Amino acid sequence: MSLYTEYLNEIETRKAEGLHxxxxxxxxxVQELIxxxxxxxxxxxxxxxxxxxYNTLPGTTSAAGVKAAFLKQIILGQAxxxxxxxxxxxxxxxHMKGGPSVEMxxxxxxxxxxxxxxxxxxxxxxxxxxxxxxxxxxxxAYRDGNAIARDVLESYSKAEFFTKLPDVEDExxxxxxxxxxxxxxxxxLSPGNQAHSRSDRELHGKCMISPEAQAEIxxxxxxxxxxxxxxxxxxxTMGVGSSRMSGVNNVALWTGKKASPYVxxxxxxxxxxxxxxxxxxxxxxxxxxxxxxxxxxNWVKKVGPDGKPLVNNDGNPILEQKYSVETGTVxxxxxxxxxxxxxxxxxxxxxxxxxxxxxxxxxMKAGSSYAVVFGKKLxxxxxxxxxxxxxxxxAPSKEVSVEGQGLTAVEKIFNKNAVGVAEGKTLHAGSDVxxxxxxxxxxxxxxxxxxxxxxxxxxxxxxPTVDGAYQSGCHTASxxxxxxxxxxxxxxxxxxxxxxxxxxxxxxxxHAMTDVIHKVLNDxxxxxxxxxxxxxxxxxxxxxxxxxxxSGTVALALATGEATMPIxxxxxxxxxxxxxxxxxxxxxxxxxxxxMLQQFGDNVFQGRVIEVHIGTLLADQAFTFTxxxxxxxxxxSICISEDETLIGSLELAKARIQVMIDKGMDNEAGTLxxxxxxxxxxxxxxxxxxxxxxxxxxNAKYFAxxxxxxxxxxxxxxxxxxxxxxDASRRYTHDTIRPVSYYGGEKKVDLGFVGSCMVHKGxxxxxxxxxxxxxxxxxxxxxxxxxxxxxxxxxxxxxLKAEGDWEILQKYSGxxxxxxxxxxxxxxxxxxxxxxxxxxxxLCMGNQEKAAKGDTVLATSTRLFQxxxxxxxxxxxxxxxxxxxxxxxxxxxxxxTPSSEEYKSAVKGIDxxxxxxxxxxxxxxxxxxx
Length: 930
Prior knowledge:
- This protein is an alpha/beta fold.
- Helices cover 38% and strands 15% of the residues.
- Residues 6-162 form the Aconitase B HEAT-like domain.
């Protein structure tokens, strides 16, 4: 059977699902298309021509290579296709973004035919995705006196690829569509359980919100053909939970503009909005697609005569509507004066200037943020080659420097890693900065999209300036189903070839790892001055500063070793008092959020960096705090550690990296060995006093300072989705933090889950110790609800085995994962037993395993969004409550939430994760898990 026949069969299958033919990335199939196009009598010639022109993916796919080479033949007259003239062939090449297409254009521009060379040069002037090899060819030709090369370089030095693009419209008419009330998780836009289809954009687009919502959006488009649909989070924040490029892609697919007539299902320029704006990491993704993200402020807190916000019986602020954005409302965005108006444009509703900074407008004009990044790099290269000053085209980076003001920890890291800043210049929060990225992480449900982005931007190898990069397999670890079997090996092969350390060896040289990516990145980050970019909102390390990002930003960091962003403001978090013996550090984490809201009323963490002065906690335990800051809606977090504690964390990281090396995971470049050497250097700097652990300056300026009182935390804290709150905007947020006594020891628990990136080795030991205690006290352990336990990494399991804890877990498990025979189907029913699951995200992701519909789940994880861990049933709403490991274990054993007394009794004598606030002067106190 030919590849074309297989493709036709696939087309019929997709047609039955209401889908168009899948875009082609296989060069061998394109070869068959070309053969059929060149055969005038071939029965499939017409369809083959359509597929070749309109359905072949650009960039560095093998399909793009074959297509570009054939278009070059047409331009040179070596092949004749009546429907593709040489001029049309040039137009097709201009839409292919880079890689083989740029190579062909350079061949033509630097060739012997003057007329063809001139045309190729004109097309080259519009291209921005050039790499070192392409630039070397241009500069060599220029030095050899080639006139076309000079002409192209002069155009690049003036950034005509940008200046000749149409400007953003002065007025943009939008029609609103309320996607939901309250915070909108990116799960609504791109559900985690549909992660397998993200790289198939049309198929994945069908999962956005609901079929009914999609129909309503289409109806609005029919009624308002001259307007853009604006997706709104009413009374909430848009895009909480993750950056999720697939979510923005889906919004763009349904509401945006087509990027190219010759590239299917790639849209850009979506418009999204929220009463409380856009989640910071999601807003970055909106910029990647040249979109607009608006902070509507259409509901405001009602205030009393004393000027203080009025609250309802639940203690929540009463909101009053400033103006309506109900579905179907037509509004006018004036991009010139940066205001939102009514339809007529004569009533100002809100200032939206934050959505139209000079940099964001450039993204909108260019159609993406990384087109601007590559464009700036190309302009700099051209100007340097010609020996001229680059034309002042792009908005100058905003530089904020306050004389006499010290630096926060994040400001210090940004200044240290800044690129292109004048020597001696000190930048503060609000400055726009290009920074070197040290560590990059790609995870498996966004990895295929990252590989597509790398192909689209014509990248073939990781930037040599990146210290280390890792491709995980944790988000699809639970079930080795047909989708995973098809996607994961292909992803690992691509990333391994690109230069990343990969969880799975394409050559099967080592055991496939499914370690949680955040835990691996936490280990391979070996410098507290590092900047980390990862394809997940929980890219929050306890060393350095880490930013969760979309698949495109991850691709850009891998390809260029850089990222561009403003230096964020910081909120300082310190602690006072003493942590009670019966409390776990997870309760301190939850209490931090609750006390912050009590102190300020509003979430001062949102969109800012949390600088947490933990100091005495090792990296594993400190990560529990930094990880949770994603749910606090913070942009990132920084852990301030004492010298001795940081050294201990680095020694632990070295040991775990060595294990990866021993397993055969290092590459030819010796990336992992290089990280150990870097850790040794950092340890030496600390020990000699040359460069102590990172601390802020005493006179640093913070947006706010939160002091957490440990003395008032006397019982476990639970983050509750509050699914039955009469105010829909208050449901499924992470802001409802309740003490365990709130439930009176009566709330039924249907399933417990200990796992995800929020747990560390100590949590696994706590589970084992609780089982031991119950066995000693009662002679046996009985579960009244299922308990799912998933260790975050294989390293941790190996350590538990060596220390005797895994044996206890095995003794009481009714199921233990077997990597020789991994599950091929997701579990749908649970017995009241202990399940020892494969390392990975498991229930927290919700894309493979889920609790039974309508269950009440008590979990250590981070996700309580509707439908994520558990879906609703016809009779009952599913709910995922979040708590510490001992609370979860005890609840599974009891089948209900414990009373405060039951909890205190159950954890007596157990080595919980303790925390002692650092002394004012550097000390040597260590956590009990040191």
